[in-house]
Every structure is written in structure tokens, then in C-alpha cells.
Amino acid sequence: MKSYLELMKRAIEQGSVRDNRTGVPDSFVPGDMMKFDLAEGFPIMTTRKAAWKSAIGEMIAFIGAKTNAADFRALKCKFWDDNANKDGVDYAGNTVKNVWLTNPHRKGEDDLGEVYGHIWRHQTKDDGTNFDQFADAIRQIQETPNSRRIVVSGWMPHQFNRMALPPCHVLHQWIVDVKKKELHLNMFIRSNDLFLGAPANIVEYAWLLEVVAHATGYKPRWFTYFVGDAHCYADAVPAALEQIKREPLPLPKLKILKPYDGTLSVVEWLENLHPDDFELDGYIHHPPLTAPMPKMAV
Length: 298
Fold this sequence. Notes:
Blueprint: H1 2-14, E1 16-18, E2 26-37, H2 52-63, H3 69-73, H4 81-85, E3 88-89, E4 95-96, H5 116-121, E5 123-124, E6 130-131, H6 133-143, E7 151-153, E8 169-177, E9 182-193, H7 198-216, E10 219-233, H8 237-245, E11 253-256, H9 266-271, E12 278-281
Parallel strand pairs: 9-10
Antiparallel strand pairs: 1-2, 2-10, 3-4, 5-6, 7-8, 8-9, 11-12
Helix pairs in contact: 1-8, 2-7
């Protein structure tokens, strides 16, 4: 996980400082990246503990096109509760209205609208039928693995008024090496809080690469994580600097307790997974480190 620590160090030491919507300045670098070789183990933070089951639960909810915070909670993920139901608070203690709460498209308590997974799984073709980007990507991995067009996009600006929050990770791309029987994954995230957000996003997409590779008969290999705007909030800097000083520990291995057996399609199998269907074998980590969550939830 040195790639992660090095990016956070660059953002703090070389980044430009600016104001932003939270009221707390951040230090940012534009256009950066991290790269993880899954042959070396599952890329999870060892320099502090990561809430890895919540992250996996969020990705399972995305795959299932869930649009209700209750469905995320059932998968051990509470990340979306405030965006669904509460006003925000800025750092001066002022209430910041969550415009989603009065949006005419909102269907009531816990509704999130057409976030992430809905866009991945439900787009309308010219003939009025549904196009499932995610299922089509899995199909291409299986049937046309040499394609360079195996991309799933969540960036639909014309639909922003129908969702509680626009996506941060806006697309991912699958690359298949047929000769080596390896599967690779590229992900682009437009904006990333490195201390609080990136650790969960790394787990989510590394997990996605692991399980899709497993179900399609490939070895999971390179996960490349591109960031448009990589930043660290000022009040997270002390904890981040402490984390950077810590020596990373050996990476664990992801164990799949409900392996794919071909009974269901790959997508159906993924939709029916639960965070408790996985273990991290050998996950050891340094003591916890905390920083304030940005209080403006909108």
C-alpha cells in the first residue's frame, strides 16, 4: 500500500491549498494515480484499520442497482444514510439544506434516486428497451475478451437531478490478458478525499476485480486507480502524517466463502453475495487513526 501513502504524502507536501464547500481548506494535486498488484495480496490499508466489510457491502449494493439506504444498511454499509435523509452542517455549525430532501423525484425516507448501480444497470436504448452496462461488461470479458471497450460509466449529468449525490468514481474499465489468463481493472474517480474516502474505494474495486476474475476464470492482477482531484483536508493532516510514517505490514488474502459454481449467471451470483461471504486471511494492521468527517453532507 506504499502507492496510497505516497499519493497522500504528495497531496500534503506538494499540493496547492484551497477553500472548498466544507469550510475546511484542503491540499490537492490534480491528475494522479495509484497502482496495486493483486498477486502480492489484497490491497487494504495496514497502516490503520479499514472498515472493509462496509466497503464490500456498498459495492454489492451498486451491483444490485440498489437505490435505497436501507438496502445498503442490510449489507453493512451506512455510508448513504445522511445523503438520503438529513440536512448537512458546515464547520461553522450552520445548517446546509440537503436539496435532495425536497426533490420531487425523491420517493420518501431512505430513497437515494438513480445513484451508481442504477446507472450501471438501467439505461434506455433507442428502441425503449433496457441496456445493462455492467452485465454487458461481464459478457464481453467472457465472449470478446480482447475488446478495449469494456467500460462501465456512471457519469450522466442529465440525470443528476434524479439522484441524491452525483458519482465520485465515474467509470471503470476491464482489461483482459488472454495469454496470461489475467484480468486487470482501471478505475477513474473525479474527486477523492485521500484519508477518509480512498481506503474504502480501494477495497471496493480490488474486491470487484477479485470476484469477477474468480467467476470468469482469470487471475486478478493489476488494479490501477486514477484520481482527477486528490485531496487531504487540513484537519486530517496530523493523522495522515502519522499514518505516512508507519511501515506497511504484509497484505492479507481475500477468501471467498461462497465460490462461484456456475449455477447462476456471474451477475446473479454477484448480486446475491453478502460481506459475510468473505474473510481476509492474515489481516494485521497498526492502531486506529481518526479524522473529522466533512460535516457538509451535500
